[in-house]
Amino acid sequence: QVQLAESGGGSAQPGGSLRLPCLAPGFTFSRYLMTWIRQVPGKEPEWVSIINPRGDTTTHADSAKGRFTISRDNAKNTLYLQMKSLKPEDTALYYCTRGHGLAYSFRGQGTQVTVSS
């Protein structure tokens, strides 16, 4: 059974950092492309960062470039999103998904990130 469990969310000040892990048991994690997406209530979801199965190719949305880093540890079935230089507009519910961009097949429950002073 596919499971995606995000953690690491919380509150941060502008300019701060957070690291979001996503534990992904229940399937052969190393075979799948993974994406972090985020959503603000009342708005459409936005894909943030994508990583290929081997972890050697990543793509970031313009809003994340230079500030966010997606990575994975296939031995630990874990996906990560390192966020730095956080801005208030990064406030959202962040989801770990299996798939490419918004064309995902599974999504976790999400972890809330709130950036404010």
Descriptive notes:
This protein is mostly beta strands and 117 residues long. 0% of the residues lie in helices and 49% in strands. It is built from no helices and eleven strands. The protein has strands at 5-6, 10-12, 18-23, 34-39, 46-51, 58-60, 68-73, 78-83, 92-100, 103-107, 111-115. The strands form two sheets. Strands 2, 4, 5, 6, 9, 10 and 11 form a seven-stranded mixed β-sheet that branches. Strands 1-3-8-7 form a four-stranded antiparallel β-sheet, with no helix packed on it. A hairpin with a 6-residue loop joins strand 4 and strand 5 (46-51). The radius of gyration is 13 Å and the shape is globular.
Sheet with the most strands, sense and barrel status: 7 strands, mixed
Please give the alpha-carbon distance between the first and last residues. 40 Å
What sequence of helices (H) and strands (E) makes up the elements?
Answer: EEEEEEEEEEE
How many separate helices?
A: 0
* Total beta strands: 11
Instruction: Compute the average pLDDT.
Output: 97
Specify Rg, calculated over alpha carbons: 13 Å
Report the sheet-strand fraction.
Answer: over 45%
Helix fraction, binned, reads under 10%
Structural class call reads mainly beta
- Ranges where pLDDT stays below 50 over 5 or more residues in a row are none
Shape: globular
Structural key phrases:
0% helix; seven-stranded mixed β-sheet; mainly beta; four-stranded antiparallel β-sheet; 117 residues
Q: What is the element layout, followed by pairings?
A:
Layout (H helix, E strand, L loop, with lengths): L4 E2 L3 E3 L5 E6 L10 E6 L6 E6 L6 E3 L7 E6 L4 E6 L8 E9 L2 E5 L3 E5 L2
Parallel strand pairs: 2-11
Antiparallel strand pairs: 1-3, 3-8, 4-5, 4-9, 5-6, 7-8, 9-10, 9-11
